[in-house]
């Protein structure tokens, strides 16, 4: 595996505490929570399938940490039906004019650990510890269950491994990357009778493969990405062309959730970066045309409020549903993020995207901003049929970074002022908790009361899923301002992860109660985004090299996978 050093990209086609004991008792039953898309559809691994494992389940050689391990956890068999996808979902790999070129900036990523500062080395150590648990107990499976030393499946596609590829490359973990690359080459096959969520699989798997291609220059990842992209295309075969939430990548049958014919607005408007880039690399316009048709349709819809969009859209009618409810949290968040990032990805030529984003920011200012007591923190609430709620998901902490990114790329300077204010709020959402880690959802105090804190938490909301949004925005704010306090805040959060979520045998666990430092209630789950996003953003935050994945050369998808900004035509 070698760094790539190709020519410039062609223009797009048109169309410190590290205790080894985890506080708390046995793992808590996880509460229902939202990813950035719809609720997760659980797919249980069997108790035992040792007879079917054979060589496929054998543990690979020593991995991160170099420990002598006993062997891999039992592996789910995903043989399923061997039906071909519907016609048109599986084209041979088409090359764009000439050979697709990975990113020219990739060669600038230092591969020498000696160039890492002390805080970056701490992130590398945390990654190695997390990877050691995954390698030992969940190799090739979707997610590690670190407390029970087992695994969980969602799609059965090695989700954590694929989500981590570019992180390993950026951190200089050559051995681990090479071993993961071997698994992708030999074990990652998409001809499986399994439903995947279009949004989550696009941002994690398609985005992860595309980013790994750009950083490493290895065509294997692009070939896998195109195969997977083809298998997602049946999702767009709806009356309205608004895609279904789920698609079977083996049979090519797509469908909405069992309980509704709606998709969430975030999930149908946060797949564009990846599909557009896949078209640019392969020369096959169908990927870009499908997602841009969705974007144009959503742009034209009524039911918005000063640029703010409802959370749901019907796949049959193509209309917004559940009107009058507006949030920047789950089910709507990344719609706003991808307006800006598509504009940046395309070389700032698609003014409709920019204008929709600018209108939405003004809508946020007009309808969703509040100020708490006693510290007068600026927060983003929710609006339901004219009623304002002082509720803010931790997911909303993507917004300071997005606002700062827009200001860096020439949008109004007052966006940076709002970014700074919201960044302070997101830091306090962590700081005011006993563990130093943010709850999944916070409510802000609006009234002056004795001894009242700004950030209040309901019992059902006090879990932490190792989410990246706060450190993501810290990365952007530090990169654009150079203010060291943002690095220091990120360092505090890393120390809290080590103190309250680190599992001695390997991995990090989501916790059930951020307000109980003595018993944070480990939930026995390490989401793939902890390695794919949280640790990556921390590593980049602690770097003082502005050319390490320059934000003038790359745009990060909503799973922190860097994709190149297109060169002008």
TrEMBL record:
Membrane topology field: Single-pass type II membrane protein
Keywords assigned by UniProt, alphabetized: Calcium, Disulfide bond, Endoplasmic reticulum, Glycosidase, Hydrolase, Membrane, Metal-binding, Signal-anchor, Transmembrane, Transmembrane helix
EC number of the protein: 3.2.1.-
Composition bias, Pro residues: 1-10
Compartment annotation: Endoplasmic reticulum membrane
SUPFAM superfamilies documented for this protein: Seven-hairpin glycosidases
Keyword Transmembrane: yes
Record-annotated disulphide pairs: 397-426
GO cellular component: endoplasmic reticulum membrane
Keyword Metal-binding listed: yes
Binding site for Ca(2+): 558
GO molecular function terms attached to this record: calcium ion binding; mannosyl-oligosaccharide 1,2-alpha-mannosidase activity
Basic and acidic residues bias (residue ranges): 46-55, 87-98
Active-site residues, Swiss-Prot/TrEMBL: 200 (proton donor), 333, 440 (proton donor), 469
Record PANTHER family: ENDOPLASMIC RETICULUM MANNOSYL-OLIGOSACCHARIDE 1,2-ALPHA-MANNOSIDASE, MANNOSYL-OLIGOSACCHARIDE ALPHA-1,2-MANNOSIDASE-RELATED
Family the entry assigns: Belongs to the glycosyl hydrolase 47 family.
Protein name: alpha-1,2-Mannosidase
Organism: Sus scrofa (Pig)
């Amino acid at each position: 595996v070698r760094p790539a050093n190709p020519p410039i990209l062609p223009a797009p086609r048109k169309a410190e505490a590290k205790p080894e004991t985890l506080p708390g008792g046995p793992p808590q039953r996880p509460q229902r929570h939202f990813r950035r898309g719809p609720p997760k559809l659980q797919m249980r691994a069997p108790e035992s399938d040792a007879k079917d494992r054979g060589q496929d389940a054998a543990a690979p050689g020593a991995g991160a940490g170099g420990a002598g391990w006993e062997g891999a956890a039992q592996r789910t068999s995903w043989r399923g039906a061997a039906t071909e996808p519907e016609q048109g979902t599986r084209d041979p790999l088409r090359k764009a004019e000439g050979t697709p070129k990975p990113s020219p900036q990739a060669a600038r990523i230092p591969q020498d650990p000696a160039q890492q500062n002390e805080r970056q080395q701490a992130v590398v150590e945390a990654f190695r510890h997390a990877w050691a648990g995954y390698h030992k107990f969940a190799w090739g499976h979707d997610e590690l269950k670190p407390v029970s030393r087992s695994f969980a499946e969602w799609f059965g596609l090695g989700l954590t491994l694929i989500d981590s590829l570019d992180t390993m490359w950026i951190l200089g973990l050559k051995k681990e990357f090479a071993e993961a690359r071997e698994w992708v080459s030999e074990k990652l096959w998409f001809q499986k009778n399994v439903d995947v969520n279009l949004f989550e699989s696009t941002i994690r798997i398609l985005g992860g493969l595309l980013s790994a291609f750009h950083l490493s220059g290895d065509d294997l990842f692009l070939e896998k990405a195109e195969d997977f992209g083809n298998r997602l295309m049946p999702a767009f075969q709806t009356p309205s062309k608004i895609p279904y939430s789920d698609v079977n990548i083996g049979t090519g049958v797509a469908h909405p959730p069992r309980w509704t014919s709606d998709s969430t607005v975030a999930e149908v408007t946060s797949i564009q970066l990846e599909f557009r880039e896949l078209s640019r690399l392969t020369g096959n316009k169908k990927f870009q045309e499908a997602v841009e048709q969705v974007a144009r349709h959503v742009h034209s819809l009524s039911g918005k409020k000063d640029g703010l969009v409802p959370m749901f859209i019907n796949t049959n009618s193509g209309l917004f549903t559940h009107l009058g409810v507006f949030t920047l949290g789950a089910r709507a968040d990344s719609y706003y993020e991808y307006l800006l990032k598509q504009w940046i990805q395309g070389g700032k030529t698609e003014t409709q995207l920019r204008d929709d984003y600018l209108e939405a920011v003004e809508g946020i200012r007009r309808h969703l901003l509040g100020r708490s007591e006693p510290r007068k923190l600026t927060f983003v609430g929710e609006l339901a049929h004219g009623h304002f709620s002082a509720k803010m998901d931790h997911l909303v902490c993507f917004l300071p970074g997005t606002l700062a990114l827009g200001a860096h790329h020439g949008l109004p300077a007052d966006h940076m002022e709002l970014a700074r204010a919201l960044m302070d709020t997101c830091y306090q959402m962590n700081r005011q908790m006993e563990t130093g880690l943010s709850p999944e959802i916070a409510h802000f105090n609006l009234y002056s009361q004795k001894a009242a804190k700004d950030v209040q938490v309901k019992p059902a909301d006090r879990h932490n899923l190792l989410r990246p949004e706060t450190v993501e925005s810290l990365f952007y704010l530090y990169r654009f301002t150079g203010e060291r306090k943002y690095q220091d805040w990120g360092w505090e959060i890393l120390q809290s992860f080590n103190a309250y979520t680190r599992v001695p045998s390997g991995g990090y666990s989501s916790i059930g109660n951020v307000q109980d430092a003595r018993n944070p209630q480990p939930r026995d789950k390490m989401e793939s985004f902890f390695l794919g996003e949280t640790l990556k953003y921390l590593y980049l935050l602690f770097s003082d090299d502005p050319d390490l994945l320059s934000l003038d050369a790359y745009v990060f998808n909503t799973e922190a996978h860097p994709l190149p900004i297109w060169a002008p035509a």
